[in-house]
Amino acid sequence: MSASQNPIAAIATAPGRGGVGVVRISGKNLLPLAATLSGGKTPKPRVALYTDFLDSDGQAIDTGLMLYFAAPASFTGEDVLELQGHGGPVVMQMLLSRCLQLGARLAEPGEFTKRAFLNNKLDLAQAESVADLIDASSRSAARMAVRSLKGAFSQHIHALVDDLITLRMLVEATLDFPEEDIDFLEAADARGRLAELQGRLKTVLQSAEQGAILREGMNVVLVGAPNVGKSSLLNALAGDEVAIVTDIAGTTRDTVREQITLDGVPVHIIDTAGLRDTDDVVEQIGIERSQKAVREADVALVLIDPAEGINAKTQAILNSLPPTLKKIEIRNKIDLAGETAAMVSDGLKLASGADTLIKLSAKTGAGLDLLKQALLNEIGWQGESEGLFLARRRHLAALHEAEAELENAALCGNHQIELLAEHLRLAQAACSEITGEFTADDLLGVIFSRFCIGK
């Protein structure tokens, strides 16, 4: 039996102590293993068997429930055993070791889900949604992950692929009859079908882009001169005292990270050490980390002291920001100036390079809702809807590639049938990569290696 056919086993519950722990086994013909482990008892499919789990000397390792799922009616499409015992780490390791003694091998990360994919129980997009559901950081993300797991995203992709195949058949059927190809394609409304495909692909892509925002969230950095109120703003957004606030410049000597949720979107906020020249070695390390955070950010909140405006220190910071980084200018401390909260974004030409200005008070909370809405606007979030599904960067890349191929196909002239057929084939291949109908083995390895062991 090859290594890929061997039964695999792993602890399926999270590390640490718990009331219940689960060891999962998947493979072919697991009933002999089950009988040996339970002292001769044979579990019935989908019926819980209360039994002792025995070691090699016949002594009980633990007492619990054995569940048997016969192939192909299981998560992986193979025989599956789930051993539910007491959730102590030592007990779980002893039970797992016994399963390995009986012929199973330790599962690799994501191998249970990979076997489900290889056995056609899930397509690749559904398999990835298993990991997305586990990693979901908001209720909205969890709901959309379940939609993808149930096949909502895959259904859209399969429909696109089916229509691409139909259009390819029409186009390629003309290659053997070059004299009649133009009339045949016109009669079949090939151009109209192609335009309809482009419109549907655009709709799917828009939903996927929104789903990617929901899955990945956004990284926001607070930048500005020392003692301009960055830590106060972080605390106000987080609703907690997560950063130390003093009047002493350089109080924040390292990046401070906090996650909040805005309309279901996870937002990772990073309070940076004040970007300035300093001889303090510790503060220099914090500034280096701040510069790295800025490079990885989606949006920068540029805090400017209303009393000083853009002084030399602030200008130096602005000059160090990546030119493509989206910026929102923050005028804090409006409570001291007697101003009211406001958001201005129409026709602005701010010296900071931002196209949105927020006036707020981190101390009183005035204007925070305006800032939260501005952040969602910057990343193009349109709100949760039933048509959304979680998507990954590779999904977006594949959809953009398919979109480009369909655009090239639309540009083909009436006598470029071979070229038209090739662009349609490439568009189909790009869409099929999403569900795994066409994919490279190394891509599968990367995808499933990021799962947790036991899943």
TrEMBL record:
Q: Where is the TrmE-type G domain?
A: 217-380
Gene Ontology BP term (one): tRNA methylation
Query: Which positions bind Mg(2+)?
Result: 231, 252
Q: CDD domains of this UniProt entry?
A: trmE (cd04164), TrmE_N (cd14858)
Write down the superkingdom of origin.
Bacteria
Q: Which UniProt keywords apply?
A: Cytoplasm, GTP-binding, Hydrolase, Magnesium, Metal-binding, Nucleotide-binding, Potassium, tRNA processing
- Give the subcellular location: Cytoplasm
Q: Which residues bind GTP?
A: 227-232, 246-252, 271-274
Q: Under which EC number(s) is this enzyme classified?
A: 3.6.-.-
A molecular function (GO) held by this record is: GTPase activity
Per the annotation, which location comes first and is thus the protein's main one?
A: cytoplasm
Listed InterPro entries = G_TrmE, GTP-bd, GTP-bd_TrmE_N, GTPase_MnmE, MnmE_dom2, MnmE_helical, P-loop_NTPase, Small_GTP-bd
The record lists K(+) as bound by: 227, 246, 248, 251
Q: How is the cofactor bound?
A: Binds 1 potassium ion per subunit.
According to its UniProt record, which cofactors does this protein need?
K(+)
Q: Which Pfam families match?
A: MMR_HSR1, MnmE_helical, TrmE_N
Q: Where does (6S)-5-formyl-5,6,7,8-tetrahydrofolate bind?
A: 24, 82, 121, 455
- Gene Ontology cellular component? cytosol
Keyword Transit peptide in annotation:
no
Q: How does it assemble?
A: Homodimer. Heterotetramer of two MnmE and two MnmG subunits.
Which family does this protein fall into? Belongs to the TRAFAC class TrmE-Era-EngA-EngB-Septin-like GTPase superfamily. TrmE GTPase family.
Biological role? Exhibits a very high intrinsic GTPase hydrolysis rate. Involved in the addition of a carboxymethylaminomethyl (cmnm) group at the wobble position (U34) of certain tRNAs, forming tRNA-cmnm(5)s(2)U34.
Q: What is this protein called?
A: tRNA modification GTPase MnmE
State the organism of origin. Neisseria dentiae
